[in-house]
User: Fold these one by one.
Assistant:
Number 1:
Amino acid sequence: LDVSENEIREMDHLVGSLIALRELNFARNYLTSLPTFWKNLGFLLYLNVANNQLTELPESLGTLRHLQRLDVSSNMLSTLPLALQNLKELILLDVHNNRLVHIPPSLSLLKNLQEFNCEANPLAEPANKVYSRVCLDTEF
């Protein structure tokens, strides 16, 4: 389901009833928050909420056990939920261009993570140190 670039301000709760959904793209809208219905979307493999106005991510994203690609870049995130450590199938995590100062050490538990982009954040530690701690494949 691709609803990118539609000036959407809120994700409708009906999206949570699309239990067979595999891809969800809400990029380049005006979302300021995300709902908590994620546990219903057990087959979701790809979630893109880049280029919105998100200030936080719900802990319930951690229930997306089969999620492989998560793009939350270009928002206003200052923290990442600890529940992201539950996304054991995650291959790609893009958090670039946010307001992140710290990257949770628990992301190192994501053994399948191959691509991690955290550039353009005011990180307290050098990006190369974060990359080496989180995954093998790095982007600067």
Number 2:
Amino acid sequence: MEKIDKIILGSNSFEGVGYLSRAQTRHYIEFFSKKENIIPILEASFNLGIRSFMCSNNSNILSSLEDFKNSSDLSILAVIPNAYEYARESTEKGVLGAILSKAKKIDLYRKVRMGLQAIRKIQGIITKDLLTILTNLMDFEMASFHSYNVPGVILHGQVTDLALSSHNREIFDVYQEIIRERYKAQPILATHNFGILLPKLMEWNIKLPIVASFNKKGFIMKPTQEECERLLEKTDYYIIAKKVMAGGRLSPEEAFPYLSDKNIGSVVLGIGSLSEAYHTLSVAKSAFQNS
């Protein structure tokens, strides 16, 4: 496995995902709809030495990467599928309508760059099962990142947990095979159910890095904080911690000491403003410099 950086910039805020209130979510959606508000955070993170960026193919993020002068020096950890965007649009248009709507928003220049074959694949989704939908979406969404260095591809937690709840090992097998063989990247799984996923992966003899919530408040640590910590302590799986500030309920100074002695390989940090970027990432670098 290619080495993963200790500190990773996340993109939840850029995609309008907030955990404190609806007002925060609305603010993120409006504020980060303008790439002029995303690019300065990318620049600040880069200036602080952060070289990894975990993101989906959100149109505002892709537009920001195109205009960010150092994007070629970043390692992109692509999150697929773009579940948040599909979820928002599917409430009005249905799942298929949301997917087709996303394709229509892509300008002609980018469609040519992505390849028309990837665009056409989504036309046949309506009667497909989850596995077929996923494989079609993988080609469609990965085409968005073809200009960038993508050493890792993360299966969105909603898909991971859906496959987990249905005991569908085939999804994990096909996913990791496609990512390794077709895209020459490291497959990674995100989850909101670390304490359930890890034992199942061990049972299935599937060893992949896992992105999961770890924070001292136990926020989205399922089934319990204690069980997640017990499994974390003894595992040899590579763990990337998310929700480390409990969705904004902890300051960096409160959050990072909890992680410093844990069996965690990397942390992903979402940033909601330019000042937050300098503060949070500076504290993180200090906290994790020797780990």
Number 3:
Amino acid sequence: MVFFEILGGLVALGGLGLAMSARVIKQFEQGLVFRFGKLQQGVRGPGLTMLVPGVDQLRKVNLQIVTLPVPAQDGITRDNVTVRVDAVVYFKVQDAAKAVINVEDYRFAMLQVAQTSLRSIIGKSELDDLLSNRERLNQGLELMIDTPALEWGIDIDRVEIKDVALPESMKRSMSRQAEAERERRARIITADGELQASKKLSEAAGTMESTPGALQLRLLQTIVEVAAEKNSTLVLPFPVELLRFLEKNTNVESPVKAEAPVAPPELTEEPKEPA
């Protein structure tokens, strides 16, 4: 009877020890085993892994892509414009051992590097680059963050600038500039249209002048269009031949010499004889 009690106690202790030594590592994790504070060779993969109770310590590392928002940073661009820029960094752990041993908290370290790199990018760039050339700035920011991240076993997936906030005075100035640019383009388009229209009208006038019947056909077409409208306009056709006759007669100059005005005779007073 005592034997069975001892055997049952040993089985219970064995089961308890087995439960304490068994660990489960998920599919997206890797496990690092420290024995008496020293990292053991090899990384434990997903599944069930066994530890020595009271001796081994398991450290799990997540291998999923981490989304790290970078708080908005204030800075002055190279052309002396105050802006406020925020970004987001996507990264994942490539080497679990480096991420645990080389840095105390790799998430906090990545955040600090991203903030300082973002402020550096703001100071090296102009406002137009921040607004219209973000792809190149994203690549430059990624290179700046990637250099220290490699020592921590971190792989940078991508870095993106989210928003660029401008002062209200700068927004109003840019709005006026954009409006002036739109007005300039509208005037250029209008002037170009008028130039093309004048060329077409000049060609049409030359064609009508070379073709005698074209002007009469155009006159008849205009009369038909006016008559089709419901209005009280009265159209009186005027013969084109009469216009040409009047034009020819006005071009012929008949010089008429004006007679010179005759000056009135001067009245001279005769001297009186003395009595």
